[in-house]
Each structure stands twice: as structure tokens, then as C-alpha cells.
Design goal:
The protein has about 375 residues and is of the alpha/beta class. About 40% of the residues lie in helices and about 20% in strands. β13 (about 280), α11 (about 290-295) and β14 form a beta-alpha-beta unit.
């Protein structure tokens, strides 16, 4: 059985089905830089399909130019892992100094590696010496995994052949959300009533961190404008973060009774909110993918995304939603009103997200490990 290692900063919950599926066929180690980050709180469940190993070294937390947390990791122990455990192949994700150091170690030690990219062409990145490290890491990889079309475009810009790239879809547990949808659809009106939402109200939903990068203030300003003219438009915001108190203050200041603010919640509770929603908003300034797009579409909900959301290039067309290229209050408000008037075919939305699944991701992952550039 092949021994494969994946290097990542942290294990997000949506990766678990992929890692478990791959771990059934290979001996899989997941090498992490940290168990949790300041703006995230995720638990790593016990599993028999892969082993988690925490690397040791330096960790630094900063704020980036989007006022979001930036985590810098330099985990020297990756060298000792490669020396003494020597996997058949290392898969390097989450571009960081540990990633670049790992690529250099692989080059010196003769360990083959795959570069796993989720960075988009317009994602703010460091230039200069850091870009030289990135170019070295990309150039010397045996193969490349990417999360979607835009992440692939980023790698192509570094001169990589398209034949040396495999798309590993960023996917959620579609079946779980499909089942939740079926479970709660019969109680849609009851759930609305419990939240003070009327039967014919048009419900917007946002799910994610309450931070500047997500354009929270832009969404609030647009909603204030909409609500002042139409009280049947409601807005559910689910999440948490440094802007939480600002959102509550904004609601109180402008008497936005239609703004419903919820903390992060388990998937089954969140499903109750998706069931009553008519449109997902995700207009971030930077978003490698946006897993909430997949989640919402599993409930047949159309989506409105900024051009900086990675999922847009693969999941959004005229039948599943809209992409904003001019991102300001006026355009956002107008687009929401335009989409409110349209009728979207739920089946088309479900069919689109159904094809973007973990089974495909696992199959593509294993095919490259077994038959690819090894």
C-alpha cells in the first residue's frame, strides 16, 4: 500500500470525506501546522482512515491588507518527517513558508510531490522573494491539484502544462444536505413563522465569518436600502467574528427588524435556515472557493457572488445565479431586486452542484496517485 502524506495548515471539516475516502486505499498521513486558528474553531474527529501529525516550529499571527488574520507557519519538523518517514509522495497544500520549505526539502531528498493550489489569479499575494519561492515550488512539482477553474488559471500563469493539472473539486457532503432538505422542506412555513418571516417574504442569507474581507458592511448598506423600500425582504446573517457587534449596532441604529443575526451552528440547524431562504449572498473581496455556495445549492437556492469567489467560475451560470463584476451598493441592491423577480429552476441548481461532489474528488485524487506522474 502506498504511503502518502498531505501537508496542510489545518484540517477543515469539508476535507474529511475526501481524506477518509483516500485513506481507504492508501496509507495516509495528514501533516498539520495547527489544530485551530484564531478565526476558526474546528474539531478533528477520530478516524481510522488517516493519521494526523502536528508539525513543530514557528507560528505567527498577523493582519493582512484586508484586515483579515494572516497565519505564518514555518514548521522545520517537516524535514525530519521526510527524512525518517519518507512517503512515496507528499501533497503540499496551503501555500505558506512551510509549503515552500517542504518543496525545497523534497527537491533535495528526491521525494516526489504534488502542489495543491487554491489561490486565484486575483488573490492578493506577496511578490519579490516570496514569489520566487512560489515559482520554485510550482516548477519542481511532479503534478498539480487545483480546486477549480480559477485556481487552474493561476497555475497556468506560472507556465504549467494543462496536462499536468488535475481538478480536485472543493465539495461538501452533498448527500447529507440533500437529506436535510428533504427532512425540513415539509416544515418550511413553520420554520418561517418561528423566525417572524411571513409566507411570501423574500429571504436573503449569508453564512460565514463577520470580517471585512467578506464585505459585511457592503451587504448591510445594500440591505438597508432594500428594506427601506420593501419590508418583505428579510436577511439572515449566520456567523461570527470581529464585526459581530457592528452588525447588531447597525440593525438597531436603522431599525432593521428584517435583519436576523445568528451565531455559527451545526449543519442540521443551518439546514433549517437554508430551507426558508431564497438567495445566498457571498460578495467577498477574496474567497478561494466558498463552500457555502455548494451548501446553498444543495437546497436549490440560487447564489449571488462577487467575481472574487472561486466557486463562481464552476457553479454559476444564468440558471444558477449571478456574478457581480462591479461591486458596490447600487449594483448589489439592483441585482438582488432583479433576481427577486426571476424564477430559478431548483432542479437545474441541484443538478449543477450534484456533479461537484466528493466521489469525483476521491476518484481524481486516487487516479493521479495510482496512474499519474509517479
Amino acid at each position: 500500500m502506498k504511503k502518502i502524506a498531505v501537508l496542510t495548515n489545518i484540517i477543515p471539516p469539508y476535507r474529511l470525506p475526501l481524506f477518509n475516502g483516500v485513506g481507504e486505499k492508501v496509507k495516509l498521513d495528514i501533516l498539520i501546522c495547527t489544530k485551530n486558528e484564531k478565526n476558526r474553531s474546528w474539531d478533528i474527529p477520530r478516524t481510522s482512515n488517516f493519521k494526523v501529525k502536528k508539525l513543530f516550529g514557528i507560528s505567527v499571527t498577523l493582519k493582512n491588507n484586508l484586515n483579515d488574520y494572516r497565519f505564518i507557519y514555518l514548521k522545520f519538523s517537516i524535514l525530519f518527517y521526510l527524512l525518517f518517514k519518507r512517503p512515496d509522495q507528499l501533497i503540499i497544500g496551503d501555500a505558506s513558508f512551510t509549503s515552500y520549505f517542504a518543496a525545497l526539502c523534497c527537491k533535495i531528498l528526491g521525494v516526489k510531490y504534488i502542489w495543491w493550489n487554491e489561490t486565484l489569479p486575483f488573490t492578493p499575494i506577496n511578490k519579490g522573494k516570496v514569489d520566487k519561492l512560489r515559482k520554485f515550488s510550482i516548477k519542481n512539482a511532479n503534478h498539480h491539484f487545483v480546486s477549480g477553474t480559477l485556481a487552474k488559471e493561476f497555475i497556468l500563469n506560472y507556465g504549467v502544462s494543462k496536462n499536468n493539472i488535475t481538478v480536485i473539486p472543493d465539495a461538501v457532503d452533498n448527500e447529507m444536505y440533500f437529506n436535510f432538505s428533504q427532512k425540513f422542506q415539509p416544515y418550511k412555513e413553520e420554520i418561517k413563522d418561528s423566525m417572524g418571516i411571513l409566507k411570501d417574504d423574500f429571504v436573503l442569507i449569508y453564512v460565514g465569518q463577520f470580517i471585512d474581507r467578506k464585505n459585511i458592511n457592503l451587504m448591510l448598506e445594500a440591505y438597508k436600502e432594500l428594506y427601506s423600500h420593501d419590508k418583505t425582504i428579510k436577511f439572515i446573517m449566520v456567523g461570527g467574528g470581529e464585526l459581530t457587534s457592528n452588525i447588531f449596532s447597525f440593525k438597531e441604529k436603522y431599525n432593521l427588524d428584517g435583519l436576523i443575526i445568528k451565531d455559527f451552528m451545526p449543519s442540521e440547524e443551518l439546514a433549517r435556515l437554508y430551507v426558508v431562504s431564497d438567495l445566498l449572498l457571498l460578495v467577498s473581496e477574496s474567497e478561494p472557493w466558498g463552500m457555502v455556495v455548494n451548501e446553498a445549492m444543495c437546497f436549490g437556492i440560487p447564489v449571488l457572488l462577487s467575481r472574487y469567489v472561486g466557486a463562481g467560475a464552476d457553479l454559476v451560470n444564468k440558471n444558477t445565479g449571478e456574478i457581480l463584476y462591479d461591486i458596490n451598493k447600487e449594483v448589489l441592491s439592483k441585482t438582488i431586486l432583479d433576481m427577486k423577480k426571476r424564477t430559478f429552476n431548483e432542479k437545474i441548481i441541484l443538478d449543477k452542484v450534484y456533479k461537484w461532489n466528493n466521489k469525483h474528488a476521491i476518484r481524481s485524487f486516487l487516479q493521479e496517485l495510482q496512474y499519474g506522474h509517479n
